[in-house]
Design brief:
Length: 141
C-alpha cells in the first residue's frame, strides 16, 4: 500500500498509482471466471460398430484326472493304467483331440518324483500341452 506521509507540499501531484483496489478487482473477476466455467467431462461419445459376425461359442474342453499313487501306479479318470505303453496311447489320443482335454495331474504326497517325471516326460513327448497340477494344498504342511 502506498501512502504519502509527511513532508512535501499538499499541492504536489502524486506520481504513484494505488494498485491495491485494482488487484482486488482482478482477483474477484478471476474467481467469478473460475466459478462460471462449466465442468469438463472426459467422456467421448462414440457410436461403435456392432459385431454381426460373432464367433461361435467356445466349447469347454474335457477334463482328464490323471493321478499318480504313492507306489507309482497311474490312474486315468479313476481306472488304473498298468503299463507305460497304455499311458502313451491314452496321452497320444488326448493330444490328437481338438480341443485338447485339460489333464489335471494329481500326484500323491508320498510318491517319488521319478514316477511323476516319467508321466510329465511322456506327456511332453506326445504333444500334450494342456496339463496342470491339482491338489497342491496337500503339500502345505
Amino acid at each position: 500500500m502506498a501512502m504519502n506521509v509527511g513532508g512535501g507540499n499538499e499541492d504536489d501531484v502524486m506520481m504513484e498509482i494505488n494498485t491495491t483496489p485494482l488487484i482486488d478487482v482482478m482477483l474477484v473477476l478471476l474467481v467469478m471466471l473460475i466459478i462460471t466455467i462449466p465442468l469438463q467431462t472426459h467422456a467421448v461419445k462414440l457410436d461403435m460398430p456392432q459385431n454381426l459376425n460373432a464367433p461361435p461359442p467356445l466349447v469347454e474342453p474335457q477334463v482328464v484326472d490323471l493321478e499318480v499313487d504313492f507306489d507309482g501306479t497311474v490312474y486315468w479318470n479313476g481306472s488304473a493304467v498298468p503299463t507305460t505303453a497304455q499311458l502313451d496311447e491314452l496321452l497320444s489320443s488326448a493330444a490328437a483331440q481338438s480341443p485338447q482335454p485339460e489333464i489335471h495331474l494329481k500326484p500323491n504326497r508320498l510318491v517319488k518324483y521319478n514316477y511323476v517325471a516319467v508321466v510329465l516326460a511322456a506327456a511332453q513327448r506326445l504333444g500334450v500341452t494342456r496339463i496342470g497340477f491339482v491338489g497342491n494344498e496337500q503339500y502345505m504342511d
